[in-house]
Amino acid sequence: MLLGYVMDQSMKIKDATGKSVTPIMFADYGVNLVSSGIIAHEDTLKEKADLVRRFMSATTKAIEGAEKAPAEATQAVLKALPKAGKPDTLQEGFELTIPLYRTEETKSQRPFNVTDANMAETVNLLIEYGGLDPSAKENPKAFYTRDFLPKATQ
Questions:
Q1: Which among 7, 44, 91, 139 counts the fewest CB atoms within 10 Å?
Q2: Is 2 among the domain residues?
Q3: Helical spans, DSSP H, in 3-151
């Protein structure tokens, strides 16, 4: 057993061994955490807000493009990073990633949205099992913002 991302480590093992890999996701057992994110320093958010908005707009559009055309996204990645993996498993990794950009609550929204309830659940689990200071429960919003995400109609 290996702990890793479903779209990353399982693909590397498959490429290295040529054997099928069956990922077991925490979410399959009711553990739903907000996972990867884009992190920016508070000073950057204040002093370069327009840059952050443009970055998030471009990143959101890139994700939406990869969702619509995973084969083309795979080829673009391999063109930029020829050692990124084998085309078939890299594309499989993209396809495994796509559902992870949204939760049940945000499935009709653009990528990177998270609800207050999603984050509160994550903070609670990190307090209980991850060693996060219990005072974090008082303000889960301290860990994220949606202020720089592009609007739904953009």
A1: 139
A2: no
A3: 9-17, 42-47, 49-68, 70-80, 87-97, 116-129
